[in-house]
Amino acid sequence: MAKIPLFHTRRLLLGLTGSVAAYKAAEIARLLMQENVDVQPVMTESACRFVGPATLQALTGKTVFTDLWDNRIANNMAHINISRDVDVILIAPASADFIAKLANGFANDLLSTLCLARDCPLIIVPAMNRQMWENPATQRNLAILQRDGVTIFGPVHGTQACGETGMGRMLEVQELVKTVQTFFQPKLLQNKRVLITAGPTYEAIDAVRGITNLSSGKMGYAVTRAALEAGAKVTLISGPVCLKAPFEATLVNVISAQDMLAAVRKEISRTDIFISVAAVADYLPTKINKQKIKKIGGNLLLKLVPNPDILEYAAGISKPPFCVGFAAETENLEKNAETKRRRKKIPLLAANLAQDAISSDESALILLDDKGKHLLPKAPKIVQARHLIKHISLLYKK
Ligand code: C5P
Predict the structure, then answer these.
(1) Under CATH, to which class is 10-184 assigned?
(2) Amino acid 5: pLDDT
(3) Is the distance from CB of 5 to CB of 374 less than 8 angstroms?
(4) Ligand 1 atom, smallest distance to 312 CA
(5) Cα dihedral sign for 46, 49, 54, 56?
(6) How far is residue 172's CA from residue 237's CA, in Å, rounded to a whole number?
(7) Model confidence over 121-162: pLDDT tens digits?
(8) S-S: 241 plus which of 13, 96, 123, 217, CB 3.0-4.6 Å?
(9) pTM beyond 0.85
(10) What is the overall mean pLDDT for the chain?
């Protein structure tokens, strides 16, 4: 039985420059570390005026380097050694002055020298007053950096520390951390068109009542994020949930299984990979009462008929996409799930115990394919989703 290992720790050099947004770098460091990223801070002299190195040191547990001439580095080559140990350099915030330095290849402090002497990707996250941002000199410098292969995240439009409103506000910390995670993921599904269903469906009984289930949509939304991280173009067809869809996905909101089927039908011919995560209601009432059904005293009989099976439909069309199913079982997990996989004629199915997975932020999965089973021990759903995408990319290529 194959155990799939977790992704390894990423090492990141976090460079802070002189912008008031430097105070947010403490939160960036903290959130990145929660995502298993090893953070090494380096600060410019101006950054130290906005936030103390002690803050970054305490949060990351690392010596914060600020000086090109730091003689704690044995061979006095701080500008080379520090960047050799990292997978990426992230400059957040990147001031207009620092961007100008980078664009012109200056190396007159530790951070700019590290950037010039690097052999890893460089990401900058600009933060500045709107007029500094709009100034042709800044725009010219950014165009040069883009041509040089530097990745630029943000900025966004919004309120600024100076009291003005406009372009130049640093990308929000949460968004930035997600974007960095995306940057780290291997582009296993680059430009593949992936269709995902997520959440429960709601089958109306009358004007105010319906049949639904406890699915939160968390797994489907995590799979959506993981597919986006892998470079896919994602359409997410979602039943009613309380989650925010990633803005890079095309979101189609649906209520009932029949709505979901109609939305899938519309997309399926231009889909490479269909991942059916939705907990589709198996039955729907034969008729929907337009008015609220009155209490009649005795028993009330509801007549239900089966819903269409969306996954079976997708797997059964003449040129089907690569189809992936999910099975939430309450007993005999493996046996029931494998029977389901064969019945639905799909190459891959992810099985989990309904009582453990529903509404939870974590799950344990068993991936079932023609070769057998692959265990994914309990982990956050985003981690499981990344494993699933990796597994799909291996099978899809064959
Ligand atoms: O409900 P069941 O256990 O059969 O669900 C297994 C898989 O089939 C899931 O991937 C689910 O999204 C899909 N399904 C579907 N349409 C249904 C019922 C289930 O696409 N009506």
Answers:
(1) alpha beta
(2) 37
(3) no
(4) 20
(5) negative
(6) 27
(7) 999 999 999 999 999 999 999 999 999 999 999 999 988 887
(8) 217
(9) no
(10) 93
Q: State in Å: Cα 227 to ligand 1 middle.
A: 20
Tokens at residue 292, please?
């609220």
Ligand 1 atom 17, closest CA: 309
Give the three-state DSSP class for 356: helix
Residue-wise pLDDT for 229-257, tens only, equals: 999 999 999 999 999 998 889 999 999 99
What is the whole-number distance in angstroms between the Cα of residue 234 and the centre of ligand 1?
20
**pLDDT higher than 70, residue 342:** yes
Pick the residue whose CA is nearest to atom 5 on ligand 1. 327
Query: Which CATH superfamily hosts domain 193-287+302-396?
Result: CoaB-like (3.40.50.10300)
Q: Which amino acid is at 302?
A: L
The set of catalytic residues is: 162
Ligand 1 centroid distance, CA of 242 (Å): 21
Question: 324 CA distance to ligand 1 centroid (A)?
Answer: 10
CB-based burial of residue 61 (10 Å sphere; 0-12 exposed, 13-18 middle, 19+ buried)?
Answer: exposed
Q: Which residues line ligand 1 (CB under 6 A)?
A: 197, 257, 276, 278, 280, 282, 307, 309-311, 325-327, 340
Q: Using an 8 Å Cβ cutoff, are 239 and 276 in contact?
A: no
Residues of the chain with CATH 3.40.50.10300: 193-287+302-396
